[in-house]
Amino acid sequence: MVTNTNKIPVSRDRKAALLAFTPAVLTAAAPTYLPIDSGLVMPVLCLLTLTVIFGLAVLWRQAERQTLPAKLPETGRGPSAPLVLRTPLRAEGPAGLLRDLARTAGEQDGIGIGASAIRGSKLELVPQVPPARFPEPFLLPSMRRPSAEDSGRIGLILQAFETDRIELHLQPIVSLPQTKIRFYEVLARLRLGDGTLLGPSEFLPILECAGRASAFDRRIVTRSMVVARHLMKRGSDAIVGVNLTAQSIAEPGFLWSLVGLIDAEADLVGKIVLELPQHCWRHLDAEHRAALAALSERGVPFSLDRAADLRFDAHALAELGLRFMKLPADLMIEAAERTDGRYAGPELDVRDFASTLRRQGIRLIAERVDADEMVPALCDLGVPLAQGFAFAAPRPVRPEIFGELPQTLSLDEEPVRLRRAG
Fold it and tell me: How many domains does the chain have?
């Protein structure tokens, strides 16, 4: 097999083989047809040898051309572009690797016909591909390992949860303009072993990552029913609102477990309001709707909580059993200051919120009312209920109110059985 200086095979097909063996065949056959003394053998042999050499040279050139990539369509950057040798990446850590990849992709942008790549110890020419776009490393989720301090704090939070050091605080929701208490919202707190009291934003993400969000919500609902029963014994008409986390709602069977809890405590129907985040109401599947319908048939009212905007379909929400809607007071006041009464997008005029919801049997609640000057503006909008530090701060529930929790209210055993079976 004939090869060129770049170790590329040249004589590897039938034409090359024919050219290689032609001189030997003709040299052997020439004496048969030509007299030795005629003087024609050597000239003919030389002519054939030159022909073979010329043919081999042509094949060598063709082999050199075949190694180059096919010419791409014209891009307006010139008929050809130099080949670029891509150096191997030797970044330290994932962030450095992504940064080097992004830099290399930027350097390759604009090359028209090809690029070179190093594969092991062999240099190969590969066709040019469009440059890849990598995100900036600082935009990616953190890939660092938690420090010893973070791990210790996570352990303290999980230990506090498993030892049931959950405390309930109640913040009243009042009527406007009378400021009479209509119901309470339950706000959960977690007390660590050293006495530190944590809010939901500090411990809920850790419980969600540990898969304990649904167990946490069940405990809160259990204690909220005890608080509602205590208010009933005192002759209060106030009801109790309980926040449910999005992760618990998404867990299969969680809402149905609440159906069983309500059936076990039928005398508390109407005294517990289940509050679901706004985005959960917008992404309900068939199972969620069926569970909500079962709860609504048993007289459980629902509330929309944690709204990020002022867009809603009052009729559709009312059909799902919604009876209360919490909207941020600052968003409504800001929308009321505009000419069209809209905060953003195609929502209704904020001045029509209260009346539109009232026609559907939904009562509007302005939440996060933290300044006294916000109250007159909300009254002008016809908001019937409000909640915030302008009226009262959350206050802890006395531990003696809970006492010994009834066994019928304990639902922590159900997820334990599911985890063992799964």
Answer: 3
